[in-house]
Write a structure and sequence with these properties.
The chain is α+β, with helices and mostly antiparallel strands and about 425 residues long. The chain has 2 domains: about 5-20 and about 45-200; about 210-415, SGNH hydrolase (Rossmann fold), CATH 3.40.50. It is built from 10 helices and 23 strands. Helix 4 crosses helix 10, helix 5 (about 275-285) packs parallel to helix 7 and helix 7 (about 315-330) runs parallel beside helix 8 (about 350-365). The radius of gyration is 21 Å and the shape is globular.
Length: about 425
């Protein structure tokens, strides 16, 4: 667990002492559930998010769980003094009952730190039923959320869940327990490990320093595919650490709206979520206090269309223009990021490479994005510009840990200030 940065500690000592007294009094009297802020508080900001991807496959009977506890691991960006979570039954085929829910700080694996567990409630109740297709927020709870730390969210599902809405390729190990409500257990009796975030889509915090969120939007390269699992090595994770390493710089939450396999314009595989234009509202615009977007998506539009009839650059650009317009309508600045090289990838074609270059020319020179991040230059092989540098990739499409760090390193923080 990382501590709060020095800039966050530079507050009035008297005010801090008063806050500490009130906070400790709240814990001593009623646990973590006192002195939480209202949902309407303008300081709420999303610290972590993920986007539902897996859609129900009508050809198969969806599988769910019953009388078991999910334990989901989420890595924060900004910290705060109060917290709430967002749960989604977006793709469910029936209402889902949450019998109990809690939040804690991860120790390791499925284990949580002793005495860090806080029960979550919904309209004052310990259980809630999420209607088919619905999204719900937990009640705010006063809780010291650390920055750049792994939280553990536990959800007990007493009844058959039906199809579980999920971010299927989380690049993070999560857990399903043996039978029973183990939401408050320090040691989870694990029945299965899963590579998905089920039901959980966002964690919001109250941060008193007027912090807003940068939403990183894209496909598997934003999702972090190819990085070390459960190690938070995605480029947005590296970028968040870069922001917080500067004690004097302005802080932002950094949230991830990437879905592996996702496209700007269309979709064909139920594992890869709805196209970006369809999911933009719920996955980005509905998050708390988003001030900036970084958009890097389109390589799957090009590569996945190669066999069925190659998409044109103008179609991808038309999708960008819709996303830009909707972001600007919400007062959000949108930064375009160039598509990285992909020669050597399974779906590479020379015709697709020309389209990628045309799309990148629009991103760089079209003048429609508020700013540009040149991720192509960050990972490109100087000796073969249509390829990623061999040291930065294992499959010629996705960066590895070093490649994702190189992407974060090239981002000019002043773009957001």
């Amino acid at each position: 667990m990382h501590s709060m940065s020095n800039s966050h500690k530079q507050v009035d000592l008297i005010g801090l002492a008063k806050f500490t007294f009130i906070f400790l009094l709240a814990i001593s009297v009623t646990g973590y559930d006192s002195y939480a802020q209202e949902h309407s508080d303008p300081r709420w900001v999303t610290s972590w998010s993920t986007s539902p991807s897996t859609l129900p496959n009508s050809e198969d009977e969806p599988e769910g769980i019953a009388d078991q506890t999910l334990r989901l691991i989420a890595h924060t960006s900004v910290g705060g003094s109060s917290v709430r979570i967002r749960l989604s039954n977006l793709h469910g085929n029936k209402p889902i009952t949450i019998g109990a829910a809690s939040l804690a700080i991860q120790s390791e694996g499925s284990t949580i730190q002793a005495d860090s567990n806080a029960a979550l409630r919904f309209a004052g109740q310990s259980s809630v039923t999420i209607a088919k297709g619905a999204v719900i927020l937990s009640d705010p709870v006063a809780y010291p959320v650390p920055e750049l730390a792994n939280l553990s969210v536990s959800l007990y599902l007493p009844e058959d869940s039906g199809f579980l809405t999920a971010h299927a390729l989380a690049n993070q190990t999560n857990y399903i327990s043996e039978n029973g409500d183990h939401s408050s257990a320090t040691e989870l009796p694990v029945a299965a490990e899963i590579p998905a975030w089920n039901l959980l889509t966002a964690i919001d915090v109250i941060n008193s320093e007027a912090v807003s969120a940068i939403a990183t939007v894209g496909d598997s390269i934003t999702d972090g595919w190819g990085s070390t699992a459960s190690a938070n090595q995605r480029w947005p994770n590296h970028f968040a650490r870069k922001l917080f390493s500067d004690a004097e710089g302005k802080k932002f939450a950094v949230v991830n709206a990437g879905i592996s396999g996702n496209r700007v314009t269309t979709e064909a595989n139920p594992l890869f979520g709805q196209n970006l234009q369809a999911r933009l509202e719920r996955d980005v615009l509905a998050l708390s206090n988003v001030s900036h977007m970084v958009l890097m998506e389109g390589i799957n539009d090009i590569g996945m269309s190669a066999r069925a009839g190659l998409i044109s650059a103008s179609e991808v650009i038309a999708g960008y223009r819709q996303v830009i317009a909707r972001a600007h309508a919400r007062g959000i600045k949108i930064i375009g990021a160039t598509l990285t090289p992909y020669e050597g990838a399974a779906y590479f074609t020379t015709e697709g490479e020309l389209i990628r270059q045309e799309v990148n020319a629009f991103i760089r020179n079209g003048g429609e994005f508020d700013a540009v991040i040149d991720f192509e230059k960050a990972v490109q092989d100087p000796a073969n510009p249509s390829r990623i540098l061999p040291a930065f990739t294992e499959d010629n499409l996705h960066p590895n840990d070093a490649g994702y760090k190189a992407m974060a390193d090239i981002v000019d923080v002043s773009l957001f200030e």
